[in-house]
Design brief:
Low-confidence stretches: none
Number of strands: 16
Number of helices: 19
Bound molecules: pyridoxal-5'-phosphate
Strand order of the largest sheet: 3-11-10-9-8-4-7
Largest sheet: 7 strands, mixed
Shape: globular
Distance between the termini: 41 Å
Mean pLDDT: 93
Helix content: 40-55%
Length: about 475
Amino acid sequence: MTDPRRSIPSVDRLLSSPAFAGLLTELPRDLVVARLQHEIDALRRSFDRGERLPERIGDPEWFASRVERSVRRLAAGALRPVINATGVILHTNLGRAPLADAALAAVQQLAAGYSSLEYDLETGGRGSRYTHCRDLLVHLTGAQDALVVNNNAAALVLALNTVARDLDAVISRGELVEIGGSFRIPEIMARSGARMREVGATNRTHAADYRAALSERTGALLKVHPSNFSIEGYTAAASIPELVAVAAEGGVPLIHDIGSGLLIDPARLGLQSEPTPQQSLREGVDLVTLSGDKLLGGPQCGIVLGHARMIERLRSNPLCRAFRVDKLTLAALTATLRIYLDTERALHDIPTLRMLGLTRAELEARATAFVAALGDIGITAETTAGNSAVGGGAAPAASLPTVLIALEPQGLSAGELERRLRAGDPPVIGRMIDGALVFDLRTVPPHADEPLLGALRRACTAT
Ligand SMILES: *Cc1c(COP(=O)(O)O)cnc(C)c1O
């Protein structure tokens, strides 16, 4: 019996067949050869695993179309823009905060050429990449100094490693939180070199618990905002002013990880219990850490704010070099912070804040028009009341009333529609509620209404 693998044509035979002529004029020969070899290797491997070879194994046309698809997939990559119709504003899996137009323009301008990243234009000497947005951060938050690193996890590791390495960092048992994407406070603390000293209980921790934990081995007190959950009932937590007092007694710094960096009054956005760095610093916290790509609405980064002397110590920690941000992040962050100089402009121009501020009436008008447009192309849907979410580990209890669009595709299950939309171009991500596919336009920028309609039309008519 002959080995079935012998039915796979040779690379040379396939390349010289008419089926490959078109590909070879369009694409570099070495690319076609490499992808063809890749396909053939994959077929051999699947045969070795016990799978059957495809029927068309001898057909050069079949190989040519496989190679064409393989090149297209390779070039497209996997990171693609999607339409977020989930209504979750800071969807960590969908890239958290979209950037403001001014931030995009700044990135584009800076990326196209050289910049004063580490060059002092006044003296002509070496500058620091950390100065560019420092003045803005200081002005906006009232901090003495500011430092930007890659993300909030890095900010926290840097802060703990600088002030509490081989010392105790005292933290409430109610704040040993996990923030999606494998960020757990106990594990982060362990890697920072600080010893975690837990105090209190899950639901109740008092200032006296922290005080009792103070010793000559204490390096810092740490307060973490439990940003993605809330506990109700018989609860108590030490307030920031109480912790400031305990930290002063112990002669150690108080670090406050506030998570989401909301820079404007939470009441303006109908959010309760969302901390701001301004408030925290005003109350006397030594170091505040926050994310750049949550409610602040900027690029992924971590920001540390606080006392000048302490920030200077962080800056000279060798880990700071390992956590350093790139110029594109700094360009986007600086442009985003500049918008905050005018609060009204920030509410309008920063996508996260604009989406948060959309009213139910505005969303209802848009949803109704969208359902009518769907009707025009033969797709049934109806509007229903619901809630959007802030997401990204912020304001878990906030209710953001919205108007949802529930799709009722004919002859197509909700699961199949969801799958088709996800596989489409652009991919569309919705929400499944009680077995129905639902869209929330809060997170869909108005200019994406047309592409969204197009995607739905294709998904509902595809066979
Ligand atoms: C989101 C969050 C973090 C992690 O921030 P990244 O920027 O994702 O590293 C840490 N602490 C709190 C309280 C958070 O909400």
